[in-house]
Amino acid sequence: MRRFTIAILGMTAVLAASTPAAAGVASGKGGFVGFEAGMSKGVDVYDDFTDTGATFGPFGGYMLCPGFGFQANLQGTWNNTTGEPSDQNTWILGGLGGFRAALPFEYGELFGVGQAGFFTGLVSGSAVTDSSVGFSGGGGINFDINENWMIGGIGRYYRLYQRVHGLGDVEFVTGGIALTYRFKDAAEPPVAAAEVAPAAPPAVPDKKKIVLRGVNFDFDKANIRSDAKPVLDEAVSTLKEHGTVTIVTEGHTDAVGTDDYNQKLSLRRAGAVRDYLVQGGISSERIKIEGHGESKPVATNDTADGRAQNRRVELRVSE
User: Fold this and answer.
1) Taken in order 295, 299, 300, 301, is the CA torsion positive or negative?
2) In DSSP terms, which residues pair with 119 in a beta bridge?
3) Which CATH number fits the domain 2-182, given the four candidates 3.40.309.10, 3.40.50.970, 2.40.160.20, 2.60.40.230?
4) Exposed, middle or buried by CB within 10 Å (0-12, 13-18, 19+), for 289?
5) Is 39 helix (H, G, I), strand (E, B) or coil?
6) Residue 163 and residue 126: Cα distance in Å, rounded?
7) 174 partner at 20 to 30 Å CA-CA among 62, 93, 151, 257?
8) Do 67 and 19 meet the contact criterion of CB atoms below 8 Å apart?
């Protein structure tokens, strides 16, 4: 069991370190908090004296980069005692801290955690009565609910360096669900309103590129923000005045992430603008979408402000 846990953590860490902000809402850096709850089951000696129980507790942490960060847990575990010499139910309280590695994908993330901490038994005469150090390792999968919330499953292995009735270390495994809330990192702010003040697009027939400077996107997202809607509404009016013109929506990204993922993300952004124009009354036959990924930046990708400007969609008349 311990070798399996260490292998899973190692593979997750290696993959996360070699995958630069690949995908998903979960891929961005920033703080997070959440709550875990599930079942617990003793291993080896601890299993001889306890039955299946429950585990629960809050957690929080911070992702230093898209694939690596730190996490702390306050963990409570309960197991019904079944063997001699005690009939007292076992309660364990622990505080842990350590690393968290993540491997994002389009709809969520795979993750692994490795932690060490301090544990204490809360009930005299039960299978766990002492206080000691211990460690935990495991992993799981999260799925995006929206841009802030994730839900998923997690499994862990625990070892506490104290004896069960003097016979062997406390070992148990847990499995359950986790609900996670992610805070937006101030390092990747949306473009300020003053920087993206919408300007009326030029008349369509002049055949010049129309840069929709108000159409920017949050990090790793393809949804239309509220500050972009007035500009797109104005574009709808212009296109209705020139009903024979066909256009192209060009999607772009910043340089965070792989080329392949950014190409797909830029297409989703261009498609989101196309869908908004169609909802406004423009025929889909008049609109073509293109994705250019990170290949055509309009600002530096070395600063948060520059990356925010590069997360955009431009509109041009089809030649």
Assistant:
1) negative
2) 94, 132
3) 2.40.160.20
4) buried
5) strand
6) 11
7) 62
8) yes
| pTM, full prediction | 0.56
Show the tokens assigned to 228.
């972009």
Inter-axis angle of helices 229-241 and 259-279, nearest 10: 60
Q: What angle do CA 182, 138, 155 make, to 5 degrees?
A: 85
CB atoms within 10 A of CB 146: 8
Q: Kindly write down the DSSP assignment for every residue of 134-147, as one continuous string.
A: EEEEEEEEEEESSS
- N residues, the chain: 319
Name the residue ranges covered by the structural domains of the chain.
2-182, 204-317
Superfamily (CATH) of domain 204-317: OmpA-like domain (3.30.1330.60)
Tokens of 131: 């206080």
